[in-house]
């Protein structure tokens, strides 16, 4: 399997730059006329992949909203992963995992090994235990041609508390940019990316020379706009993988409406 | 259901201060003569709860090592939770979850709601997105009498990168101490605790007045000693919930050996 960065670039070239969040919140299930249980989540996930699997570049399921239904919910996630793969869509598992040593290696095996039922193309990870704690995930991702997105700078109001704390004159968020840059080496497009919020008032990290992709959640419903992306990210805007969940899912469950919502937003992203 | 802090205190008074990690690493499975798959993990978890469920105060299963086997592994975790509850042991789910808004609420429902198959007595959470991002978990824990352990200061070598970064003259780790203190209010024992490493050279956070419990992993195999705990935590040592996994599990799978290992370490903890 080729490198995640190269596969993502090829996929985006073919299908456009939109990542569609698969977030079966209780409210969405109700809006779609589904039950708020594992069966409702299964129906929702299946309709998403049937309607959009041949159209969107990347799906981003939110693990929490499957975990909320225990092993039955995780079973739904496994079937979703298999169906997305069959339809030709890539999947970034949004699970924000983070731990140390052999426990981090366990998370890596769950989401980044070839023989796991939960294997995705990439995984979001959280560096509260230090970037170095993610090493087992980086190593397995390198070995299996998968990617990682490291939480860097989020746009929720309380995000700056940790992310803008400083050591040696650098913010924690900037340290993550620099660490991921180092892990990527001279690859372009590179396999390791960052999660950065799309509704920050200003971009307070320096992305100069960054060659990974930048996962930006919340385009549409959470207030992020396409023009805002260009303004916020400047020269790095071409690296952005904009993600929309609610704006797309609110158009469902009718498959044609879902597809129209994706086509419209993809066109807007250029 | 009474408050987690009060329940934990009563449990510790009756059974002693030891928390036993349930970490079915591949290596442990092999040492126990089990297969490295969901069936092996199921056998391992069942033997742990059968041997120790009426003896130990608290179990701490490591979610990663169940997730590595997908929905089958999560099914094992559900059965373990039910069996531990039936045997009278409390469970802290070590999953280090963290997200924002309605996604954090999804994690809270998964691990802290009364009707979830994955509900535990408490959950470990990660504050990279800011302490405020954990609010949905705090609210649900308050409503259901459950607890949270917030990652604060870990003893892995790379832990200081984020945890010792500073803003306004305070380290990120100290901010977490102060935030959890505020969430606990004047309760003592309080429901919200901290995760702090037991092998730090010095305690670089101020725990004065802290009334939650302090989950300290790695007693025994990872180098933490009982004497070291008193030395490191000083006046706060009485708040520590020492956790041992490998030292206990290495005594298995024989139930009597497992019990002897727990009794010996519990006695040492005083």
Q: What's the helix count of chain A?
A: 12
What percentage of the residues of chain A does DSSP assign to strands (E)? 15-25%
- Give the largest chain-chain interface (CB within 8 Å): A-B, 57 and 57 residues
Radius of gyration of chain A: 17 Å
Oligomer: homodimer
Distance between the termini of chain A: 28 Å
Sum up the overall morphology of chain A in one term.
globular
Major β-sheet strand ordering of chain A: 1-2-3-4-5-8-9-10
Structural class of chain A: alpha/beta
Total E-strand runs of chain A: 10
Overall mean pLDDT of chain A stands at 96
Give a description of the structure.
Two copies of one chain form a homodimer. Chain A is of the alpha/beta class and 270 residues long. Chain A has helices spanning 4-15, 26-31, 38-52, 64-67, 70-87, 101-112, 135-144, 160-163, 172-184, 226-233, 246-249, 255-269; strands at residues 19-22, 58-61, 90-97, 122-125, 147-153, 166-167, 170-171, 192-196, 214-216, 240-244. In chain A, β6 and β7 form a beta hairpin. In chain A, α3 (38-52) runs parallel beside α5, α3 (38-52) packs across α12 (255-269) and α6 (101-112) packs parallel to α7 (135-144). The first copy, chain A, starts with a helix and ends with a helix. Chains A and B meet through α4, α5, α6, α8 and β6 of A and α4, α5, α6, α8 and β6 of B.
Compact overview of the structure:
Two copies of one chain form a homodimer. Chain A is an alpha/beta fold and 270 residues long. The first copy, chain A, contains twelve helices and ten strands.
């Amino acid at each position: 399997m080729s490198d995640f960065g190269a596969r993502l670039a090829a996929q985006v070239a073919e299908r456009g730059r939109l990542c569609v969040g698969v977030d079966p919140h209780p409210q969405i299930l109700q809006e779609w006329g589904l039950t708020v249980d594992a069966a409702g989540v299964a129906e929702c996930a299946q309709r998403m992949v049937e309607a959009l699997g041949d159209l969107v570049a990347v799906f981003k399921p939110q693990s929490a909203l499957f975990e909320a239904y225990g092993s039955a919910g995780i079973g739904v996630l496994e079937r979703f992963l298999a169906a997305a793969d069959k339809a030709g869509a890539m999947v970034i598992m949004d699970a924000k995992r983070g731990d140390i040593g052999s426990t981090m290696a366990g998370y890596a095996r769950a989401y980044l090994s070839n023989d796991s039922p939960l294997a995705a193309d990439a995984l979001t990870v959280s560096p509260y235990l230090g970037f170095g704690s993610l090493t087992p995930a980086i190593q397995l991702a390198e070995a299996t041609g998968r990617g990682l997105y490291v939480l860097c700078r989020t746009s929720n109001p309380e995000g700056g508390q940790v992310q803008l704390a400083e050591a040696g004159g650098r913010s924690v968020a900037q340290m993550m940019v620099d660490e991921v840059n180092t892990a990527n080496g001279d690859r372009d497009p590179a396999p390791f990316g960052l999660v950065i919020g799309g509704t920050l008032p200003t971009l307070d990290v320096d992305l100069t020379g960054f060659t990974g992709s930048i996962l930006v959640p919340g385009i549409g419903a959470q207030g992020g706009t396409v023009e805002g992306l260009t303004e916020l990210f400047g020269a790095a805007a071409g690296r952005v993988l904009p993600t929309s969940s609610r704006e797309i899912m609110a158009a469902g469950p009718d498959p044609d409406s879902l597809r129209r919502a994706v086509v419209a937003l993809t066109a807007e992203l250029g």
